[in-house]
Structure formats: C-alpha cells, structure tokens
Amino acid sequence: xxxxxxxxxxxxxxxxxxxxxxxxxxxxxIAILSFQGPRGGLTFPMNGVSLHWFYDLFEQQAVGDIWGxxxxxxxxxxxxxxxxxxxxxxxxxxxxxxxxxSGVLFYLVITxxxxxxxxxxxxxxxxxxxxxxxxxxxxxxxxxxxxxTLPFGLLIMFAVFNRFDKTYEEAARDxxxxxxxxxxxxxxxxxxxxxxxVALFGFTLSYxxxxxxxxxxxxxxxLPLEIFGMTTNVTSPVLYALGTxxxxxxxxxxxxxxxxxxxLNRKQAIAGNDSGNGLV
Amino acid sequence: MSSKxxxxxxxxGWLMASPLVIVLALFLVLPxxxxxxxxxxxxxxxxxxxxxxxDNYEFLFRSPVTYSVYLKTFMFTVISWALCxxxxxxxxxxxxxxxxxxxxxxxxxxxxxxxxxxxxxxxxISWVPFLGRNxxxxxxxxxxxxxDEPLEWLLFSDFAVMLxxxxxxxxxxxxxxFNTMMRIDKSLLEAARDxxxxxxxxxxxxxxxxxxxxxxxxxxxxxxxxxxxxITVRFMSGSQSANVGRLISNDVALLRYPSxxxxxxxxxxxxxxTIGIMLRFVNIRKEL
Lengths: 280, 288
Known about the structure:
The complex is a heterodimer. By secondary structure, chain A is an all-alpha fold. Chain A contains 11 helices and no strands. In chain A, helix 3 crosses helix 6 (137-162), helix 4 packs across helix 6 and helix 7 (167-174) runs antiparallel to helix 8. Chain B is an all-alpha fold. Chain B is 73% helix and 1% strand. Chain B has 14 helices and 2 strands, in the order H-E-E-H-H-H-H-H-H-H-H-H-H-H-H-H. A two-stranded antiparallel sheet of chain B has the order 1-2. At the A-B interface, helix 1, helix 3, helix 4, helix 5 and helix 6 of A face helix 1, helix 3, helix 4, helix 5 and helix 6 of B.
C-alpha cells in the first residue's frame, strides 16, 4: 500500500483543507474578536486586547438573563439526553422483530425527522393554547425537542442492531438466560459504546435547538432563544464572547463523550479478548 | 429481520415501542392534526375561533406573494442542495479512498462532524465579521485591488443565505455518502483497475453508482432542512428575503394562527411529496 501519492491526492487534500477552513474559519474569527478591547467593534481591526466582553457577560444588567437561560438549556439537555437514550434503546429493540404497525411507526419516525421544525413548534403551541395550558420548557419544550432527537437516536440504534452478532444472544439463551437477562447482561454491555453516541446527539441537539423551542419554551428562554434575541438588540462584541463561551462548552461536552466512547471501546476490546490467559 | 409475525411478537413490540409511540403521538401526530384543524378556523385581531371555512387557503392561493416565496424557497433548495452535494461528495471521496489509515480517517471524519454538534445560531452570527461592510472579505478584496467600494451584497442577501445553508448542512451530505463509500468492496476497485480503468473512470462507473443510496439520504436531509428553514433566511438576509418558513413565522408573530396553519399544511404536503419522490430511489432501512 505504499505506492506514491498521485496528483489527485494533493488536489483533493487541498480541497479538504479549504473545506475545514470554511467550516471552522468563521467560528475562529469570532473567538478572536471576542477579545476586543472595551472600545472595539464587531469587525476587525482589533482595538486592543482585553477580557472586557467576557466580564460583561457576568454582569446581570448588561445583557438579558443569560445564566438563567444557560441553566435551563443545560437541564433540558440532560432531560432530553436521558429520555432519548432510554426510548431509542427500547425502540431499537422493538424494531428488531416485525410487529403489527412497525412499518407505520417507522414512517412516523422518518416524518418526525423531515417535518419542518416550525410546524412542530406551531402545532404544540396551538394545542397548549387551546387547552389553556401554559407552554413551558419542561413540558411542551421538552416534548417538541424529543421529536428531533429521537429519530437520530433510533437511526443510530438501527445501525447498531444491523451489525449486531446474534450468536451472542443465542449462546446466552442456550445457557439458560431469560430474555431480560440476555438483554441486561449480553446485549446492553455490547452496545454500550454506541449509547454514548445516542446521548451525544440527544444532549447537543437539544442544547442547540432553536425552531422547535421557539413557540414552546414559554416565558423562560433557553440559551439559543436568548442568543437570537440578542442579535436584534446587542451590537457589541459581547455577543461574540457569549458565542465563544457556549461553543467552548459544546466542544468540551463533545470531547468528553468521544473520549468516553473511545475508552469504553478499548475496555471492551481488552476485556473481551482472553488471549494470553492460558487454557485454564 | 424475520418476516414472520406472531401475536406475542406484536405485544412485546408494542410494549418496547410504547414510549416512542407516546412521544410521537403527543408531539408529532396531534400537533399536525391540530394544525390541519386550525387551518380551517377563523381569526379576529386578538383571537382565533373554530370554524370550517376555506378562507385561509383561498387567501394563500390567491396571493401572488405565495408563488414568489415558493419560487424563492425552491431556488434556495436547489442551489444549496447542488453545492452541498458537490462539496460533500468530494470530501467523502477524499476521506474514503485517499486517506489510507483508519486512524486518520476517523480523526478527519470527526473534524468534519464536530461543528454539527455546536450551535447553528452562533455559526450564523460568526459570518458577520467576515461578510460585513467592513468585514474581512471586503477588506481583502479592496487591498488586493479587485474592488474600489465595499460590496454590499455579501451580508444580508440571498448570497449570504445560501452560503450559510452550505456551511450548516454540507455535513449532512458528507456523513451518509462517506458511510456508503466505506462499505464498497475494495476488490471491485482493484478489478476495475486491473481491467484498465483510469481513476476517473472508476469514480464515474464504479464508485458513483454504488454511492447513490448515500447521496439520496444526504439529499433528503439537505432538502428538508432548507425547505423547512426560517431562521437562517431571516438572519442571513437581514429580514430582506423570504421563504415559506418565514411566511409562517410572520403570521405567528401577528397571532394569525389559522393563516400560519394553512401555510404549514401546504408546506408539509410539498415536503412530503418531494421526499416521497426521493424515497422511491432508496431503501433507508437497508442502508443503515
């Protein structure tokens, strides 16, 4: 496999590098600009370098209720994450066998994925409105976000179970395990690393969701709603400082998830391999 | 997947799927039904009232605005889709067939997907210092002597909207295409090469046909995301351009829910027809 690289490789590698620059360049730009001096503006040049705009974020009066909305987004993200993992695993297990209506349910899942987000927002908002219930991020907001995270969770579970080696289960059953024991002690440990993937989707998609929470979050904003509100009335780099902070937060979360998936995978590879242990 | 069904299978299936069914029933099926119902209702300036009339649809189909907005929506969709496909395919092709070690493939693939898990709103805002009147793009073009006056159409324009769509959604193309490409049997490529095919011929005659399912799935994502969007168009066009999603959000802002609902029903039907056509070319369940 060590034939020399052709010209097409270097062309494509250059294209790929440009694509990465296109993906990350703008975010890096606002990260740099968030360190503007106190009199700096929204574009270059930098007017000195300072942490002024980050300090601003911690002053309640300067901007809206950022920390409250951050706490709500964090709480909602965790709620959505746990629910997505549990419901997706159960759904994934259910879909391994055909059952009455499984085809219809599958198309509902796909509909949930492709339906314009604002329709979910509008529909849920209308129902709460007509029932004289107050929309709130823990009820209507929570449910609306699940219609976006669950399809991703389920598609991951479908992919996982398509590759799942059923002989492990058959072996467990031959040894007398009940179906619950088989799931608890054989299936779940094997699919555990992929559950981290489902959790990552559940949390980040919820944490960043905008359209589905727009009409369903009620009077207490989530962070993306708060940020969007700021774009209409805040014209200082404090917006960039907030963007930088929340992006850094997302990156840390992503890193934690990816590292734990990698660690679980490795542990599994070591634990599942008994070579070198001898025959006894 | 076994093709035989039994009563006990049905029961355990429903039991396991019941949380999913409950969530989708309450927050997908009921809301859609509610939208359909409300689309026939009437509205006063302050409230909406139950009725069964076609006024909302009549107004929608009579208004010339509707057609120009749909035209704009399709334009955004087709152009963004074509760009996402071209860029996404090239990136996936590079990752799958030109990066040689698996470790590098994983690292570069993750590098492509990480932005997907960060905030879309922030990623839109981050174009401001780049495209603004005194932004990096204008400054660079002026100092290169290519223009004398700053270009006004970079930010808050249709150009900016489509740039943002490509920026946000190309990942949705890269991932499924890469996934399908990785499952192509490498011996097929070797056979083609042994048979005397050039690299370009292998690409067009072997890889491209085998990658169609991935392309289809990516296309479904991009098309539905762009057609159903309203926030990207609002922010990146500086409220100067409109698509169907913005029509709905404008009605909502004015509390004209029945009118918003009628527009929503038409949009949903349009999206479902588009996807129905695309699904004829691919079996999603088999491709995961």
